[in-house]
Amino acid sequence: MEVKRKQQLMIENLIAKTTFLSKQMNGATIIENDIITAVDSDFPSYNANIITLKSNEAEQIEDSLPSVLSTYTEKNHPKNIWSFEENKDVNTMLENIGLSEYETSYIAMIANLFSMRPSMQHHDEMDIQRIQSPKDIIKFGEIISTLYQGTPEAKAIQNYYSKAANIPLSKQENFHLYKGIYEGEIVTIGSLMITGNTAGIYDMVTLEKMRGKGFATFMIQYLINQAKSRNVAFCTLQASSDGANIYKRVGFEPIGTLKVYE
Known about the structure:
Helix 2 packs parallel to helix 3 and helix 4 runs antiparallel to helix 5. The mean pLDDT is 94. The chain is of the alpha+beta class. It contains 7 helices and 11 strands. Helix content is 35%, strand content 28%. An 11-stranded mixed sheet has the order 1-2-3-4-11-5-10-9-8-7-6, sandwiched between helices. It starts with a helix and ends with a strand. It is globular, with a radius of gyration of 18 Å.
């Protein structure tokens, strides 16, 4: 499969994930067309307000983008736009209209699940469970917010998931949240989005005090096994430069670098 097609599978899954909760929350604004999918969650969170580019044509995007950006400007909401590094014309256009590149970029990765070797099914100290209760959805958001401790983003994420707690996740077939429990405490989280023949892994966070114990690695393997159980062929994710080697070891390959603009 060509790299462009692999990137397309990742983008399609990313769009499904970034829109899933917000589509079910009053006050959120979703703009979808052939060029762009934009989410304004109604919260001042750049993690929840994501613009995903479907087109690689700078002129098409430039024509569509101003009206989309005004949605965030009117509410004074932060946002971020994901764009592959190789799309130089698009990235130059984003900079020319006043957007700045975020200091961190991400590595887009994909794995063929049919050729991936079997992974561990059990951890002696941690139990992984699907999240379904409002209380655990709120806790899920609290753990993500620890990445932004002491900033407005942390509070915005907590408020977002407090509202999302009203969504009946137990009835959702294609989007699942998971918690890893160690000594009665949720210490690591992750989520899985299924679209067509692709699974996407997201929201991988481990409490700082619990890192280095193998909990995140087991969560990754658990989510891969969940994806395999759905008989999908591919699994995608976006990794930091520090985390990419972990995913390479379990069978993921890089398919491009994602720049983030804000």
